[in-house]
Amino acid sequence: MNVTKNVVGVDIAKRVFQVHEVDMTTGEIVSVQLKREKFLNHFVNRAACLIGMEACGGAQHWARRLIALGHIVKLLPAKRVRPFVGGNKNDVADARAIWTAVQQPGIKAVAVKTEAQQAVLAMHRMRQQLVKFRTAQINALRGLLTEYGEVMPQGRHAIAKALPEVLACLADRLPTMLIETLREQFARIGQLDEQVAEIERRLQIWQRQDEACRRIAEIPGVGLLTATAAVATMGDAKAFTSGREFAAWLGLVPRQVGTGGRVKLLGISKRGDTYLRTLLIHGARVVLARSKEPSEWAMNLAKRRPVNVAVVAMANKTARTLWALLAHQRAYQPGYVSQPA
């Protein structure tokens, strides 16, 4: 059966789901509101159909459940659906817009991830939140001590080394309750360090067990965080037709503005996953700055272009290499030159 003849747009929420479809035989428009408990029952005994949903909270879970029932599911970025919303924005209009958008050519769907991949991404998000909270605690501590004339050095390790001596000097001038509170805040920073290290240890265990992570970890500039995040974020590497498409999906290629046949390249688009793009750029910066044997291509690029431009170009190349290793099931080979298909 041609599932493209049975297209359904679904606007998901926490409690109430809106379903929109059009009977291609009679032209009848069906718009149904379903409770969360009855949503899957609506699709259990139906013929295979194409179901479109926005890639939002809970979409991955429902996509896996619907695929298990034999349907085809496409998760669409919300900004690709928004242009098809006519009039006021509500659940009915959103479901109708999703139904329209899922049938449009050229709209790149978000990969449906497995529960294991989502688990790895969840650990990355929790680690990122802990690091952000740790940075806020350190900055607050530095700011409080500055009020009493103690300017602390920047960096977590520098503060950990200098803080005991600073608090000992301030103990004679400040109330004991403040000194104890500052020590408690410093202890909380140490606890956050332990929690971040524990998450990284668990990610390392998963990396050892996953063959794809081990393969791409051999690429210069790709470490534990980048390897695990890339495999979990990408999903199926063959969902992208080329390494350039994957790099463009991450926002590492220039934006284009053109008219009358003339095209002008601007800065990188910064689309896609900000977290993974940041990891790739930081890894490329380390390779260009500290690598003992950088590639000739990287050295020549760094000589003729600004540092940040060279770093992003290196991250772009790393992303393409990463995709090639995963899509073609190959091991990393330094100096490998790709050949046209």
Can you walk me through this structure?
The chain has 341 residues and is α/β, with parallel strands linked by helices. The protein has three domains: 3-101, Nucleotidyltransferase, domain 5 (2-Layer Sandwich); 115-209; 216-328, no CATH class. Helices cover 53% and strands 12% of the residues. It contains 13 helices and seven strands. The chain has helices at 41-44, 59-68, 78-81, 91-101, 115-146, 156-170, 176-209, 211-216, 224-234, 243-249, 274-290, 296-304, 307-328, and strands at 7-11, 16-22, 29-35, 50-54, 72-76, 254-259, 262-268. A five-stranded mixed β-sheet has the order 3-2-1-4-5. Strands 6-7 form a two-stranded antiparallel ribbon. A hairpin with a 2-residue loop joins β6 (254-259) and β7 (262-268). The protein is globular and about 85 Å long. The model has no long low-confidence stretch (mean pLDDT 88).
Strand and helix layout:
Blueprint: E1 7-11, E2 16-22, E3 29-35, H1 41-44, E4 50-54, H2 59-68, E5 72-76, H3 78-81, H4 91-101, H5 115-146, H6 156-170, H7 176-209, H8 211-216, H9 224-234, H10 243-249, E6 254-259, E7 262-268, H11 274-290, H12 296-304, H13 307-328
Parallel strand pairs: 1-4, 4-5
Antiparallel strand pairs: 1-2, 2-3, 6-7
